[in-house]
Design goal:
The complex is a heterodimer of chains A (491) and B (261). Chain A has helices at 26-42, 54-75, 87-105, 110-115, 118-137, 167-188, 196-219, 435-455, 461-490, and strands at residues 221-228, 232-237, 243-259, 263-268, 283-284, 291-294, 297-312, 317-321, 328-336, 344-349, 360-361, 366-369, 375-386, 391-397, 402-404, 407-414, 424-431. Chain A is α+β, with helices and mostly antiparallel strands. In chain A, strand 13 and strand 14 (391-397) form a beta hairpin. Chain A is elongated and about 100 Å long. Chain A starts with 25 loop residues before the first helix and ends with a helix. In chain A, 30% of the residues are buried. Chain B is mostly helical. Chain B has helices at residues 6-26, 31-55, 63-85, 89-107, 125-152, 159-192, 200-220, 226-244. The chains are: A alpha+beta (491), B mainly alpha (261). The interface between A and B is large, with 72 and 67 residues.
Amino acid sequence: MAGKGQSKQPAGQREITYYNGSSPDLDETVRWHRRQVEQMKKRSRSIWEQPWGYREGFIVAAGIVFSGLLLQLTVANIQSALFASPLSGIFGVLFVTGLLVVHFLLPRNSTVRWLSGVYAAVPAIAILLLLCIILGLIPQFPHNTGNEQLPSTRFTPLGWYRMTTSWPFVLLCFYILIILGLTILKRTGQKQSFRDIGFYLNHLGLFLALLGGLLGSADLERLTMHVSEGEIEWRAKNNSGDIKELTLAIQLDTFLIEEYPPRLVLVENETERILPAVRPESYQFEAVGKTARFAGVTVEIVDYLPHAALFRDSTFLNVVPMMMEGATTAIKVRVNETAGNQPVEGWVSNGSYLFPHSTLQVSENTSIAMPPQEIKRYRSYITLYTEKGTARQAIIEVNRPLQVEDWMIYQYSYDDEKGKYSDTSVFELVRDPWLKVVYTGIYMLMAGALFLFIAGPKKGPQEKKFFSARKKQTKLLIEKSKFTDSQSNSI
Amino acid sequence: MNWDSFIYFAIASLLFWAAGAAAAYKCRNKTIPALLTVTGLLIFALFIAGLWHLLERPPLRTMGETRLWYAFFLPVAGLLTYLRWNHKWILSFTTLLSAVFVMVNITSPDIHNKALMPALQSPWFAPHVIIYMFSYAILGAATLVALYYLVRGKKISNPERLMLMTDELVYAGTACITLGMLMGAIWAKEAWGHYWSWDPKETWAAATWLGYMVYIHYRLKKNASYKMSMIILLFAFVLLQICWYGVNYLPSAQQSIHTYS
């Protein structure tokens, strides 16, 4: 994008040319003077006078945000559902056609040329960055949140609590798409070089990913489905609570949760804080007979029951092995807190939906406790039925969704209250018809990033000179060393 | 191998890196500083490998663990820059910055915790975080160059060469954050159902990326002011810091699904 744009410097920009210590060659000096003269002319350029520079870029981008704000104040957030298929497809085709028409009908128009260059791009990216910073600072709410649920501050009418569906944000994204599209089209008309591979991968990739993402958000469907063990379900809810009947059905055969081994901690009785307060320590259970030291206490593992029932009478806690639903984990420990004190022995448990958790007091202020076990994995064994009459068995777990027709089925959640005894699995079903477009863009961008990593920045004549000089220098050094080597050998 | 033994490995590595940085000033040959730095890196890598083995999961989950990788990659970035561009000072700066992150880890180490929640159990986990930490280190080196330029100003004899070096660092670093971000997007599609959810971490990652896009495009014009370019770089690095850990302290991030420690 540089090269040809050389003469279009905006007013007030300083041209810096360095000659790297060596004397400049003649044609470079001539070019340099020509540029200086042109710049003298440009300095008197008033605003909006062509060719445009950064100043106009900022004004146009800010103008787009401002128009967006006016729209926002009059019609509030964009209801993306209104633009759902087939409108999104039609809009996409019209948008691309529009860019092609502008490119081919107005090839010499200076505004179009400006739009397909750095002077328009940099301010647009900078303003989008500004909106992103606001988006990152202000807590965001789901796009279907009612206005009455939003905090009522001066940002509310501006749409900043749901930035990604606000008019300024979406309009600015489309403005950037226009710049991207026109820039790509302009480049196709220029002499192609090796570096253009990187240019097309990055710019076309971003164009596809951004356009697919923007239009796709109107067609994206995300539903949740609760299924109990042994039951079949074909109805799912969207996030507004509407029920939708699907052309597929899920039968939950089994739902399994695996947990990490239990951990023991020392807590302060009053506050239930894990000690030491500055850097809490814990011990993960390994086996019976082990001794561990944490938070200043020595704990010996005396017994371990992965499935236990707790019964408490007036004075004692009785712990018995019990293979039943709702059984809890229990560990018997012997604690020697300080030398001289009598060791304390007893059961510790993290409880379940049937039994309360149980701690072991070891001193006036402290107790040994067992926090709830962390979840290692959870998965659903399902049978999947489709309208065509096919049935198949599958396993769905986190990070391993299942693709069925247009839908991706995800392991989403389970019955929190019952924990590892949950007999209900919650799935999320996602349909995104634009995913292929977005993924094409993403993979192009990844290839483009690799290209940039290898190829690096474009090198101008100055830099090329530096590199060739360095190469020569290295060659000289090598030859010199060879020379001295051969000399020393001959001696 | 656990965090208690970190201090020994860290001090040994830092001594080697410091020796490498000093040797860069003393030696005419680049081999000795390079060898010293690489030895330090190997010692540090040994600790990371040991921790990985002990935890039975990649040590990439907590902030302290990411700091560990950052402290490792900074001298890598410094060494590559030194070998390619001959700038003697870069090794001392990356060693110093690495020492800061090592110190933070010594004074407030993480708790041992082997647990890795289901969402993190993915083949994307390690490449996504490692490539991000690598790019943060390269862009950290670029930021050091920017500071060097802004402080030394007119005293720099060959500013256009320094700018070219900065461009190379930024291109490499930005390429890596692009890869890291997009790997994250593909992973998010597998784990959370959508490739981009504007989670606060994602928003700040996008802001960081846009910051470096401003730099790269601004630099395309040959009349770009060097000072302005360097200021853009500093600003982009502030965004990067917010994305990395600053986001944890923002009110907007209270419901973030990117918090693991």
